[in-house]
Write a structure and sequence with these properties.
The chain is of the alpha+beta class. It has a single domain, classed as Alpha-Beta Plaits, CATH 3.30.70.1120. Helix content is 40%, strand content 38%. It contains 2 helices and 4 strands, in the order βαββαβ. Strands 2-3-1-4 form a 4-stranded antiparallel sheet, with helices on one face. The chain starts with a strand and ends with a strand. InterPro entries: DUF503, TT1725-like_sf. This is DUF503 domain-containing protein. It comes from Oryzomonas rubra.
Length: 93
């Protein structure tokens, strides 16, 4: 069994925490439904223009687990063109 984690640092087009919450909840909710992964905002909760999101997947195959997380990153990049991915890190837990 392999456990992989994707950590994304994002710049958001939000001026308030309320706008940020709408963007982050949309990304997390759709990701849970589409990719069946665990995900949460893990840092920068008090900064309206930034967010750190984490996504975790478990698989019996190392390659498949990593590919799922790579697809999530691409999906966010394509689905939210106004959200900038500042940094990305995929690691095995």
């Amino acid at each position: 069994m392999f456990i992989f984690c994707l950590e994304l640092h994002l710049d958001l087009p939000a001026r308030s925490l309320k706008e940020k919450r709408g963007i982050v909840k949309s990304i997390l909710g759709r990701c849970r439904n589409r990719f069946n992964t665990a995900c949460a905002e893990v840092d920068r909760q008090d900064a309206p223009g930034a967010a750190v999101l984490a996504f975790v997947t478990v698989s019996p195959n190392k390659v498949i687990a990593r590919q799922v997380l790579e697809r999530i990153e691409e999906w966010i990049y394509e689905g939210w063109p106004d959200v900038e991915i500042v940094a990305s890190d995929i690691s095995e837990v």
